[in-house]
Amino acid sequence: METFLIIFCLLALIGLSNILNRIMPAIPVPLFQVALGALFAAFPTGIYLDLEPELFFILFIAPLLYNDGMRTPREELWKLRGSILALAVGLVFATVLLGGYGIHAMAPAIPLSAAFALAAILSPTDAVAVGALSGRIKLPKGILRLLEGEALMNDASGLVAFKFAVAATLTGVFSLPKAALSFIVIAVGGLLCGVVLSVLRMILVKSVLRRLGIEDVTMRMLIQILTPFALYLVAEEIGVSGILAVVGGGLFHAFARDRMEPAMTKFRVVSSSTWTVLLFILNGLVFLIMGLQIPGVTMAVLNDPKLDNFQAIGYVAVITIGLYGLRFVWVHLFNTFVLKIKPGQSSWETSLLTSLSGVRGAVTLAGALSIPLVLQDGTPFPQRDLMIFLSAWVILATLLIASTALPLFVRRERSHGEEDMRLTERTGQIRLLEMTIQALKEEINAENRKAVLSVIADYQGKLLQFQSQPEAAGRCVWQDSYKRVQLLALETERQEMERLLNAGEIEPEVARAFEKVQAHTEVLILGGRFQWVVKTLQLALRKLWRRLLGASPKEWGERTAHALKKLKVKTSKAAIMKLKPLINEEEPCVVLSVITFYHKAMDRIECSLTSSEQQEEFEDRKRDMEFKAIQMQRDGLQKLYAEGDVSLTTLNNLRYFVNTMEAAITEEEELE
């Protein structure tokens, strides 16, 4: 039961981290996940996760790297082979050598061989962390491919160096020729093992399944999911690198797939969808588990009377700065003297971006936790807790630095010539509408065809409206303009309601109901983000409650509801008449959007007053599809931000644009 609770809580935290990222997109998901993991570990739940490093490697690292091998462009990796080897092998061993001596000089309590082990495990960058950050920070394509290739290859060199440094600490014996030969055998053997096993899987397994008549999509997908685990286990069993085996297997799988399988087969669609879900879960679990380990290793060091707390924190700062400094010097010298890149601003910026992207992650944590508890003579491994503490906090420090510094430098680089590629608020609105129309077309089936086409027609009308208006000078302040125009319309509605009330054309009960609906509409359109979230949750819960009951309990009687709808039609007409003269005075696109808001609400209300049962069913189906279209817009908006096409300011303004469209749909539910 405890295992189930751990899994349930971790999956729930993954979901929560993505919700928090939607609310605060400037903070990347990995940092939310690390923080939530640390909070979960610190909270007295009574649940404890005992992490086995070897299990961590096979359960998380193997499938993640296999997928990276499948989707990383092989031609681009081959073009960058010199740079990748310089980072994945040359920089790793330079880090081990210089870092080992530096750590031992800084902290003499850590023996030299153990310092080499710590430097070795800190040397590999992490493919998972790089991928998670590159999804949010739009790095230049060449740098991104270099980082992906480096992260795929440097795990083997770092872990081999770590293995020999730990062995030297345990036995006191080290042989450089033996270590060099072992590295070549383990690295090359791992790649060959992955390729050979993948070939055998393709030839033997597929032929056997075909003869048995069970080569269906489900069986093939199951074999593909099991492949990285099998590759890792077999490679480690024969003494070569399991990590490079899964990378080699993934690269070969992509090579064979591109030449033997059409692009849009049913299996490739299922495979893509399945891996999307698996990667979403595995990536989240990796960073959550990192967070789970931080409180424990931190307290172990801080509570150790032999260690000075401020000194330990200083070690983290010095090591992090040293890793970045060495990486920058190595990359810049390689670019200048090997690649012959002429010194200049772009050369320095390229070196800096490559250096800042050197994030440490899961491999470093798993390696640090695999440090033995005792030496061969039974004495405790020297400074094991301190080494794990330094590893964990260097991981966190590199994540924080990359998350905060990279966006600044990427934005600065854009300012030298790529800024025009970022979408303005108006072009972002157009792109969002186009993406939603395309997504709606993919939802059409025999049952919902009429409703979906009606929603598409509404979106196409709004799209034409935006495309017909020229871009305003400077930034389009949609949110401010819309609020000002909508506030005028709402005030006009209130004045019309008061006129009708004073004339005795409506009852006080209807006027009170109208005021309540107007207050809710103001929250959705004019309120702050917190008020909007609370109101949206309230409406969603009420809608769910109605569906669970199978009925529609109303806040007021049928007679009042009918009179309220008729009143809303009258006040909407008054608001439209007030706004029409402003089309040539205010920003036309904003005024027309508010008028469209009212026309759409009037059409729905008038239809509900006169519609047949069949028409009501169509309207309900259309409303459900409209809410689905709103979610499509929010997904598209998140994608635009994740790919770096819109800035954070534009993102927030576009969110308000989507909220105004949702308010038009929600208002009818308020009238019921």
Q: Give Rg in angstroms.
A: 30 Å
How many separate helices? 25
Shape: elongated
CATH topology of the largest domain: Na+/H+ antiporter like fold
Structural class: mainly alpha
Average pLDDT value? Answer: 79
How would you characterize the overall build of this protein?
By secondary structure, this protein is mostly helical. It folds into two domains: 52-415, Na+/H+ antiporter like fold (Up-down Bundle), CATH 1.20.1530; 425-671, no CATH class. 79% of the residues lie in helices and 0% in strands. It is built from 25 helices and no strands. The longest helix is centred in the N-terminal third of the chain and has 37 residues, at 176-212.
In short, what is this structure?
It contains 25 helices and no strands.
